[in-house]
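sorry for the late reply, my laptop died twice this morning and i had to redo everyting from scratch. anyway the thing you sent over, i finally got around to it. pasting the sequence first so we're on the same page, its 314 residues, then the predicted structure underneath. double check i copied it right bc i was rushing
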Amino acid sequence: MKKILVTGANGQIGVELVVHLRKLYGTENVLATDLRRTPGAASEGGPFAALDVRDPKAFSETLRSFGADTVLHLAGILSARGEADPMFSWDVNVNGTCAALEAAREHGAAFFFPSSIAAFGPSTPSKNTPQDTLQRPSTVYGVAKVSMELLCDYYHKKFGMDTRGLRFPGLISYEALPGGGTTDYAVHIYYDAIKKGSYTSFIAQGTYMDMMYMPDALNAIVRLMEADPARLLHRNAFNISAMSFEPEQIAASIRKFMPGFTMDYDVDPLRQGIAESWPDSLDCSAAREEWGFAPEYDLDRMSEDMLARLKEKL
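ok and here's the structure:
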């Protein structure tokens, strides 16, 4: 990667990824794009362009004028928000990705697509979920992710495009606020721990989901995109995860640093149903073997860092 265009730059991953990339590749070599400019380092700390990813002509022109050799396509609508408006979610997550792929193909750019554990479903093996397995998701978000995994594979095989992707677990960050995802409880809990000393979980006790701290997610994107293509047997998309836990375990981790923290439950049926359709834990061996995936943060190390960072922020 030398010149990089990032879509969804104001989103959960984008706000931190843009800053991370500018440190690695130079500020002027990373173009942040989103529907509109908003306050913050991603929009204000370097090149920015307003872009609706569903507009193929605008996407192509933005990519051409910047001269990007890589597109990191992060723009999308998350799971719970997508269920509230399925057709809008499909429009952004599918039609937007199609426009992005076509623009990248037209201008010879490499392409990154973030898939998700939502690409699996209730019939997928839930423990140590294989890299290659049955994918029958039960949300429009998950259906879109599976569809675009396959389309990225098609573009690689049909046109020789350098397409690569990751199946992200829940991502936990002290920078970005939750954006309507099912795993958002694992971000909310840290904020409420600092603000109130307590938390009410919308996910039920005993519900395991894969998670990852944002610094590991940013490093995984860069490491995958810089990997030797000859080693990549699976391009779209690699299982990655750093930890799998249920609400009581994250609460127990927080109590190691805040002994008075308490938690109760008010389960949201929509998000609980989505969570129960996702894997409990992922097999990440393909990512380790093909490009050296190696997360650094476990649950307690993440909790310690999250709480310290949020105390400063809040």
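The chain has two domains: 4-170+214-239, 171-210+242-281+296-313.
thats about all i looked at so far, will dig more tmrw
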